[in-house]
Amino acid sequence: MYDLVTTRHFMRSAKKFLHKHPDLRGRLATLIDDLINDPFQPHLKLHALGGKLDGIFAANITHSYRVTLSLKITEKEIILLDIGSHDEVYKKG
């Protein structure tokens, strides 16, 4: 099990995201539960980002929407950073 940490930015983004996409509330909850249990489950499609976002990971909520996170394996900690569409979360680097 991993410890989950949320940033203030993530909480604001998540609130806006869920206001626009209330139908994805369950999928986001499932994604977070699965990340806490084992972030390397294949269905999460966890992948490392590069370039300006080097050191950041992303996991899929759906094909179009992602959660970005920092993963500290030695401390077993997941820090949620952002949520949004593919273009929204990847352009912020």
Counted up, domains total: 1
- The CATH class is identified as Alpha Beta
Classify the helix fraction into a percent range: 25-40%
Class derived from helix and strand content: alpha+beta
Detail the poorly predicted runs: none
Give a short overview.
This protein has 93 residues and is α+β, with helices and mostly antiparallel strands.
What does this structure look like?
The protein has about 90 residues and is an alpha+beta fold. The chain has a single domain (about 5-80), classed as RelE-like (YaeB-like fold), CATH 3.30.2310.20. The protein is about 35% helix and about 30% strand. It has helices at about 10-20, 25-35, 85-90, and strands at about 5, 45-50, 55-60, 65-70, 75-85. The chain has a five-stranded mixed β-sheet.
